[in-house]
Design a protein that fits this description.
The complex is a heterodimer. By secondary structure, chain A is mainly beta. Chain A has one domain (about 10-75). Chain A is about 0% helix and about 45% strand. Chain A contains no helices and eleven strands. Chain A has strands at about 10, 15, 20, 25-30, 30-35, 45, 50, 55-60, 65, 70, 75. Chain A is globular and about 40 Å long. Chain B is elongated. Classes of the chains: A mainly beta, B mainly beta. Strand 8 of chain A pairs antiparallel with strand 1 of chain B, so a sheet runs across the interface.
């Protein structure tokens, strides 16, 4: 069994990996919010994040938000 | 479905806003080592975890969810504010003794059990509200909490017992509410509490006198109904006091007459003064009491035992 310590630039073939699962469990990146698949039209509104540097939000349905400091939002309609 | 935020250490505060319909689920902030504030109220979340040992966390707002437990806060030594009200938290009162920077702790409408936490180590506490839980025992001393502005332990089931501690040192106290317990003894002396606006000590077993309110010039609401109070210490009534509910006690006729006279002397219009219910004596001349008539002419609703 191989062990990834301080892994960086994880790829599957030539494709950048965005998530790593172990036995069906997401191990990277750590899940921030886990919920049942929402009904179509479900919204997140009024959200606000403060950042010290850029970060990325993966909203779970394929939507990616590239967030830049100092503030960002993850408002979204599923 | 899973939302991820990477890298978590770049994020210093999170307010997840509102979800419609509510998304529920679990939020995990472990790894957000620089997180100072998490606000995720009102989503029907079943768990919020991972903040227990975050060294930088200052504010946690997790009210109005479906949480059943509050993780230990002992590692959050920079914590200043927690609001976990209106969940299903069913456990003994959390240990807050290491949270010496805590200014706000609100845990209304849960099922906390055991004794009310002794906040004598929390010298910065401004707002402490744990009403509508299942807390028991006596209320610890508040004499060290000189920064306290609101203290709310109302409606515990089956009810807090013993006396209410002295609030002589609480010079900034604004709101005190212990309604709906099994407290006994005297109402506290209020002569030092000149910023007091709201005093709610109803539905307990307090005895003795309604205290002198002469120094409570900011007082707007005074509720001591449904106790065993028999007298009135006298003094003047502030012109800001527009609601006084003292019904269902055992006030003597002298006390009822004196309270009516004090409100007349205050000289203001339009308020509610209830000295009726069962137990209180009828004022001189009953519903024709001259002071009652004066107040009613000024727009007051006055209720006395006829």
């Amino acid at each position: 069994m191989s062990v990834l310590n301080n892994a960086d630039d994880i790829k599957s073939g030539s494709s950048q990996a965005s998530r790593v699962y172990s036995a069906g469990t997401l191990v990277w990146p750590t899940a921030f919010w886990t919920f049942n698949d929402p009904a179509a039209g479900t919204t997140i509104s009024g959200s606000s994040l403060t950042l010290s540097a850029a970060a990325t939000a993966n909203l779970g349905d394929g939507s990616i938000v590239n967030m830049t400091a100092p503030t960002a939002s993850i408002d979204h309609t599923y | 479905m899973i939302i991820t935020l990477t890298p978590p250490q770049n994020i210093t505060s999170i307010d997840v806003g509102t979800s419609t319909p509510k998304l529920g689920g679990v939020i995990d902030v472990s790894g957000f080592t620089n997180l100072q504030e998490i606000r995720c109220n009102g989503h029907d979340l079943t768990e919020v975890k991972g903040y227990a040992d975050l060294p930088n966390i200052k504010k946690i707002v997790i009210a109005d969810n479906l949480l059943t437990a509050l993780p230990s806060l002992t590692g959050n030594t920079n914590l200043t504010s927690v609001d976990c009200s209106r969940n299903n938290i069913s456990q003994v009162f959390p240990d807050l003794s290491s949270n010496t920077n805590l200014r706000v702790f609100l845990c209304f409408r849960n099922q906390l059990s055991g004794n009310v936490f002794d906040i004598s180590s929390n010298l910065n506490m401004n707002h402490f509200g744990v009403g509508n839980n299942n807390l028991t025992g006596t209320i610890p001393s508040l004499s060290a909490n000189t920064n306290l502005k609101t203290y709310n332990v109302q409606q515990q089931t089956p009810g807090l017992t013993g006396g209410f501690p002295s609030i002589d040192n609480l010079l900034d106290i604004d709101i005190v509410n212990c309604t709906g317990n099994a407290l006994s003894g005297s109402l506290p002396n209020l002569s030092n509490n000149t910023k007091l606006r709201i005093f709610q000590f109803a539905s307990n077993s307090f005895t003795g006198n309604i205290p002198d309110l002469s120094n409570n010039t900011q007082l707007q609401l005074f509720e001591c109904y449904n106790n065993n109070l028999s007298g009135y210490a006298g003094g003047t009534i502030t012109s800001n006091l527009s609601t006084f509910r003292g019904q269902d006690n055992i006030l003597t006729q002298s006390a009822v007459n004196s309270i009516l006279a004090a409100f007349v002397a205050a000289g203001h219009s339009n308020g509610i003064l209830n000295l009726g219910g069962s137990g209180n004596a009828t004022p001189t001349n009953g519903n024709s009491n001259s002071d009652k008539l004066v107040l009613e002419a000024r727009g007051w609703t006055v209720i006395v035992t006829p």
